[in-house]
Amino acid sequence: MTQPLGILLRHGDHEAAHYALVLATGAAAVGRDVTLFATNGGCRLFLATAPLVEEAREALLESRGVAGIAPLMEAARELGIRLIACEAGLKAEGLAAASLAPGVEVAGVITFLAAIGAGQVISL
After folding, report:
1. Fewer beta carbons within 10 Å, N or C terminal of the chain?
2. Its domain of life (predicted)?
C-alpha cells in the first residue's frame, strides 16, 4: 500500500496551480490516494469561472505540447483526486463557497491532515 499524498496549494498563480495538478495527477496515476488542498490565493484554481485557464501561460504550455490546467483538472477528477478548498482561505480571499466548481469540498486544515494521516505533504 502506498502513502497518501497531500498537496497544499497556497499560491494563486498559474505556475504553482499547474504544478500542483501535475504532481497530483502523476501520483494518482501510479496508485496513490491524493488530496489537493487549496488555501488563500490557491483557491483560485477551484473557481467555477476557471480564471487560470484564461492566462497566457495556459496557451503557451499547450503550444509546447504540455498539458495545461484544463486537461489536468479533468484528469484529476477522472483519477478521483480529492479537491478541498480551505474554508478560512476562502474567507481570507473574499471568495464565496458558491463560486467554486462542482465537486470541490469546503473544509478546514483538520480535514486535510486527517485525509493524509502519516502520508506525505508537498506545499506549493
Report:
1. N
2. Bacteria
The count of structural domains within the chain is: 1
Chain segment 8-29, per-residue pLDDT in tens: 999 999 999 999 999 999 999 9
Strands in the chain per DSSP E: 5-9, 34-38, 82-86, 105-107, 120-123
Place of cell 497531500: 6
Alpha carbon distance 105, 37 (integer Å) = 9
Q: Residue 52: which CATH number?
A: 3.40.1260.10
Q: Which residues contact 74 (CB under 8 A, 6 or more apart)?
A: none
d(CA 97, CA 91): 9
